[in-house]
């Protein structure tokens, strides 16, 4: 779990910060082992300095983090508030619950957006809940689910963040109509070649509860600008 490892790494930084009982002693660097120990702490600290800011919920309590780290690394069971096993279970539960809350919020935001968007002029809502707006209506053939197509597209989150764009790469994409997310499969079969549509895809027709990559969170509603360039025929 990425965020858990971030916390563990950040805890190493804590060795150089103020502990619950007062300032931590200065590094001695008298031996090679002293120096490599210090180097590990410093290098990790430099790399993970800001990562505690990613902790969901309230801000991290650095003093408690340091106390737990020191007790754990010294094996001071008499001072521990929970066992290491219980601590790991608590961390996992904490992040799972935080992820569930985030997914629920993202889902609600998407549903609210789609409810408002469907009332706008020229926005068409299909039976599945997919929404689209025709920018340019082509005059060519419409692809089927078995066809391969060439398209230009730009995908964004509802906040405007671009997560993928063949336009920015400067090269159209080719793929099977039936080999992409459900929302794409549906809308491509509505588009005559030469068309350009703006499409809003509900999460259940996109990446659903799993999300995709670092940008597309679970339950994300997505927006695409899609231009259908051609149906790719077998040579």
Compile the SSE list and pairings.
Layout: H1 2-13, E1 18-19, E2 22-23, H2 32-48, H3 62-74, H4 84-117, E3 124-125, E4 131-136, E5 148-157, E6 162-165, H5 166-169, E7 173-176, H6 182-188, E8 196-201, E9 222-232
Antiparallel strand pairs: 1-2, 3-4, 4-8, 5-6, 5-7, 5-9, 8-9
Short description:
The chain has 235 residues and is α+β, with helices and mostly antiparallel strands. It folds into two domains: 2-81; 106-232, Chitinase A, domain 3, CATH 3.10.50.40. It contains six helices and nine strands.
Integer count of domains? 2
Regions with little confidence, pLDDT below 50 for 5+ residues: 6-23
Number of strands: 9
Average pLDDT confidence is 87
| Helix content bin | 25-40%
Query: What is the alpha-carbon Rg in Å?
Result: 26 Å
Kindly report the CATH topology of the largest domain.
Chitinase A, domain 3
Question: Which H/E pattern describes the elements?
Answer: HEEHHHEEEEHEHEE
Characterise the protein shown here.
This protein has 235 residues and is of the alpha+beta class. 19% of the residues are buried. The longest helix has 34 residues, at 84-117. A hairpin with a 4-residue loop joins β5 and β6 (162-165). 37% of the residues lie in helices and 20% in strands. The model is unreliable at 6-23 (pLDDT under 50). The two termini are 46 Å apart. α1 (2-13) packs across α2. The strands form two sheets. Strands 3, 4, 5, 6, 7, 8 and 9 form a seven-stranded antiparallel beta sheet that branches. A two-stranded antiparallel sheet has the order 1-2. The chain has helices at residues 2-13, 32-48, 62-74, 84-117, 166-169, 182-188, and strands at residues 18-19, 22-23, 124-125, 131-136, 148-157, 162-165, 173-176, 196-201, 222-232.
